[in-house]
Design goal:
The structure is a homodimer. The first copy, chain A, has 3 helices and no strands. By secondary structure, chain A is mostly helical. The first copy, chain A, has one domain: Helix Hairpins. In chain A, helix 1 packs antiparallel against helix 2, helix 1 packs parallel to helix 3 and helix 2 packs antiparallel against helix 3. Chain A is elongated and about 50 Å long. The first copy, chain A, starts with 7 loop residues before the first helix and ends with a helix.
Amino acid sequence: MPEIAISVEEKAYALLKEDAEKILQLIKVQIDNLTMPQCPLYEEVLDTQMYGLSREIDLAVRLNLVSEEKGKSLLDNLERQLNILHEASQKSAQG
Amino acid sequence: MPEIAISVEEKAYALLKEDAEKILQLIKVQIDNLTMPQCPLYEEVLDTQMYGLSREIDLAVRLNLVSEEKGKSLLDNLERQLNILHEASQKSAQG
């Protein structure tokens, strides 16, 4: 096997990180376009997206491609970043 | 490798089939408990569940664990079975 080959484990983690990044970008676009974070649609989109990612991570964990810890920290990290975005947008709405 | 070993591809497909089956069972339970299929909550649960499964299948396809055709037919099959359940419940509600 050449060193350049990417294992299915590495690919799984890379894809999950990519998908988490996509959710973050989607929410950034929503905030930048002044769709208020208080809007129920925003909450619904976010919940659905987070659910989808959590199902992907769960599948990767069940396939032993990603450890439970790594999967959990991926989701926790995204939630933390979303909270920061959310708080910043609320502050700028008030200011 | 002993013959009994299951490849990650086989395991991925088995898990996806299991998850599709769980959605079908969930909807059956909802129908049996007379939560009407016209109820918006039912639609929302179903949409979210289907979205979650489609994300799992998409990940497995991107990892080359399941072919696009097999993934698509898994989802199509589930939709077909859900339609049958849905129609049956509407007929019994009318009858």
